[in-house]
Amino acid sequence: MEKCVIVAIADNRAIGKSNALLWHIAEDMKYFRQTTTGSPVVMGWMTFQSIGGKPLPKRDNVVISIFPWPDKPEGVKEVSSLEEAYEYLSGKGQEPEKVFVMGGGETYRQALPTADKLYITHVHTVIEDADTFFPVIDPAIWKVESTTPVAVDPETGYGYEFTIYTRR
C-alpha cells in the first residue's frame, strides 16, 4: 500500500486558518477529486468537520479521533491514530493500492516520515495570517517526480502547479 499525502500549500507552507481552506481553486478541487477517488482517504477529526462532517463519496473515509464519537456518520471508520488507520486499511480483505492522507496539520506531520509520495498543489501566494502550516519538504528526502506548468486561477489570481514528489 503506497502511503500518499495530498495537500495544497502556499509559498510560506500555509495550509489553513480557523479550520478552513485558505482559497477555493476549482482546478485544485478537481485534481483532488480525480486523484483520490477510488482510494481510501485518512484525515483528522477537525478536517472531517471542515469538509462538512460527511464522508467523501467513492472513497473509504477513515477519521482519526482521540475522543469518543457517538454520532459518527455512516460510511466513516473511526480510528485513534494514523498507525491504526494504516493497519485497518491493510487488514481489509484486499489492501488498497494507495491511501491518501488529506489533513490536517498534525496528521500531515505524523504522516510525512512514512509517506511514499506527496501530491502537492503549490499555490503561489503568501498567507501571513494562516494558523496551520505544512512541514518543510526536504529535498534531501524528496525528489520531484513530475510537475505541471504554472496555471493561474481566474477567481483568485493565484498561480499554482501540481507537483508529485517521491521519497529518495
Explained architecture:
By secondary structure, this protein is an alpha/beta fold. It has one domain (2-167): Dihydrofolate Reductase, subunit A, CATH 3.40.430. The chain is 20% helix and 33% strand. It has 4 helices and 11 strands; from the N terminus they run ββαβαββαβαβββββ. The protein has helices at residues 26-36, 45-50, 82-90, 105-111, and strands at 2-10, 14-16, 41-44, 61-64, 76-79, 98-101, 117-124, 132-133, 142-147, 151-152, 159-167. The mean pLDDT is 95.
SSE layout and pairings?
Elements: E1 2-10, E2 14-16, H1 26-36, E3 41-44, H2 45-50, E4 61-64, E5 76-79, H3 82-90, E6 98-101, H4 105-111, E7 117-124, E8 132-133, E9 142-147, E10 151-152, E11 159-167
Parallel strand pairs: 1-6, 1-7, 3-4, 3-6, 4-5
Antiparallel strand pairs: 2-8, 7-11, 9-11, 10-11
Q: How many structural domains in the coordinates?
A: 1
Helix share bin:
10-25%
Look at the structure and give the CATH class: Alpha Beta
Tell me, what's the shape? globular
By CATH, the architecture is named 3-Layer(aba) Sandwich
> What is the rounded distance between the termini?
17 Å
For CATH, the homologous superfamily is named as Dihydrofolate Reductase, subunit A
- Percentage beta strand: 25-35%
Q: Uncertain spans, ≥5 residues at pLDDT below 50?
A: none
Spell the H/E element sequence.
Answer: EEHEHEEHEHEEEEE
The total count of strands amounts to: 11
- Please state the CA-atom Rg, rounded to the nearest Å: 16 Å
State the CATH topology.
Dihydrofolate Reductase, subunit A
Secondary structural class = alpha/beta
